[in-house]
Amino acid sequence: MFASAAAAPGSLARVNLEFAEAVLNGLTQKGQKTIPPSCLYDAVGSALFDVITLLPEYGVTRAEASLLSHASEEIVRASSQPSRIIELGSGTGSKTRHILSAAGRHHPVRYLPIDISPAALDSCARALGGLQNVAIEPIAATYLEGLHEAMSSRQPGEPILLLFLGSTIGNFTRTDAAEFLKRIWRRMRPGDFLLLGADLVKSRERLISAYDDPIGVTASFNLNLLARINRELEGHFDVAQFAHEARYDERCSRIEMHLRSRVSQEVRIDALGISVKFAEGETIWTESSHKFRAEEISSIGHRSGFASVRQWVHGGWGFAETLFRKSAATG
Ligand code: AVI
Fold first, then answer.
1. Nearest to 169 by CA among 143, 189, 138, 193
2. Rounded to two decimals, what is the model's pTM?
3. How far is ligand 1, taken at its centre, from the CA of residue 156, in Å?
4. Which helix (H) or strand (E) holds 209?
5. Higher confidence at residue 24 or residue 124?
């Protein structure tokens, strides 16, 4: 889906069609300009995101790693000692190490990381390759296509634990999150488990500094989107004429990332054959990161058909790992 090779007009030999379409639609639609957050993750964006996870201001990844390192044995026990562990959007798989080690202590485990990026899957396989009793079978695909593939090769009666970590669920709107979980639920069998990692609501100050850090890594992560358009789509953005902005919408418990035009300007994107006008102060909305109350996570799961089994909360930062089960009664 991502690696579309297209003989494009002009000098572009290879265009990522999905990226081109997202930029075209998002910058030419009426009203608020938007580009979906998936577009932030080219090779540069993914590397910058890895740096974000190390920032003292961004506690999400550390809180989850700490929860998983302490609770993995309990998670594995509560999810009936799974022998097939599937992960949506595994990235480099670093958070998953604890769960795989705990599961592999009991019996052989097959780990099927699903990611759109073959490079991320490669480093995931390299990082986790040495784990005892764990066989890694990466799937380069979108979440739902990959899940379909991972489920179709399962053995009869093989218990499954599906991981959706890192609060990626927060990048969906609340309605889309429930709809996405419902789609996952449809692909699962009664008795299967889902472990969902989600960031919790915290103070505006903490959230703003997590998404607008003082050394500008998150700003670079966001601005790289314009540089990516220049690189891949023959864009003419002067990146210095845009500013990173993190806003907190308290009513929706949502951090928003925007790229704000510092001046009134018009920018050509040659590969798309368009010229985009920006008023001074106008923004491109590039990401939403919803924050949840702990009990709200369970109710989103329930609305999607899951029964909640247990929740582990990191009190220091405010992060929850919630274990759900597809129950026989609703299956
Ligand atoms: C991947 N996702 C859950 C991160 C988040 O917190 O929403 C992406 C991110 N954006 C800025 N900082 C981190």
1. 143
2. 0.92
3. 37
4. helix 204-211
5. 24
